[in-house]
Design goal:
Strand content: 25-35%
Bound molecules: fe (ii) ion
Oligomer: single chain
Distance between the termini: 29 Å
Length: 266
């Protein structure tokens, strides 16, 4: 099966690009299952309930988030009830949301059975709000997911490239894909690790690239140079959808190919 993973959807430009173009992309690239990180969809911070529904209608099967997950608390009931969105698995036990999900994909295997896909999100701990150990958290999660669920997607939402590389290596052979989010800049290190896990340090964002990680350049410069706080508007130009497409053997859960994905909006 072929998975499309989209990095952080940023603001209106990113959201509109996904909702307007995902259908064509899925058709052209023969995508079976779409996972999108949507933590920045609501004006750069959080995700609204309306946007969640819009992404699902546009063809997103599963949504991951990150440090902005609770910026729009109207999302609470969706986080509580809808299996198509997860919270970081190493967030506090009592925080709202499910630490992992398994969703049924339409793809069928050789035995003509539909394929179950597990989706998990983890947060890094370097230069970020302290959270539980992601290594311990993923061990717990992998112990809970049925062994029959071979296709497993892990979004590592982290500031440090080394955190993401460590989790990629740690999970090598145990999940199908480890892909980084949060830093909003695509990295050129996509590869299949030795035991069949596809890996990329940063998917890049789905949003405006004429920006500082999605925000208006002048506003960011102004506050950085003068220390005067200003609202960081989401930028508008050079919108691209970024991430990776990954081919996975549904019998083994091993990845057979990973390609960096970039789709420029005209
Ligand atoms: Fe983030
Ligand atoms: Fe982000």
């Amino acid at each position: 099966m072929r998975i499309l993973f989209l990095g952080d959807i940023v603001g209106r430009p990113g959201y509109d690009a996904v909702t307007h173009h995902l259908g064509d992309i899925v058709k052209d690239q023969k995508i079976d299952f779409v996972v999108a990180n949507a933590e920045n969809a609501a004006d750069g911070s959080g995700l609204t309930a309306r946007q969640f529904k819009g992404l699902i209608e546009a063809g997103v099967h599963a949504v991951t988030m990150g440090d902005h997950i609770y910026k729009k608390m109207e999302l609470r009931s969706i986080l509580e009830q809808d299996p198509r969105i997860v919270k970081p698995a190493n967030y506090p036990f009592d925080s709202v949301g499910r630490p992992w999900t398994v969703l049924r994909s339409n793809v069928t295997n050789a035995a003509k059975q539909t394929v179950d896909v597990a989706v998990i999100s983890l947060m890094g701990r370097t230069y970020m709000r302290p959270v539980d150990c992601p290594f311990a958290a993923i061990e717990t999660v992998l112990g809970q997911i049925p062994a029959s669920v071979k296709v497993r997607i892990v979004d590592v939402h982290a500031e440090a490239t080394s955190d993401k590389q460590m989790l990629g290596r740690f999970l090598n052979g145990r999940v199908s894909l480890v892909i980084g989010t949060h830093t909003h800049v695509p990295t050129a290190d996509e590869r299949i690790l030795s035991e069949g896990t596809a890996y990329q340090t940063d998917a890049g964002m789905s949003g405006p690239y004429d920006s500082v990680i999605g925000r208006d350049v002048q506003r960011v410069l102004q506050t950085t140079i003068t220390f005067e706080p200003v609202h960081f508007h989401v930028a508008t130009d050079d919108v691209r959808l970024c991430g990776a497409t990954v081919d996975i053997d549904v019998e083994t859960g091993k990845a057979t190919a990973i390609k960096r994905f970039e789709y420029k909006i005209k």
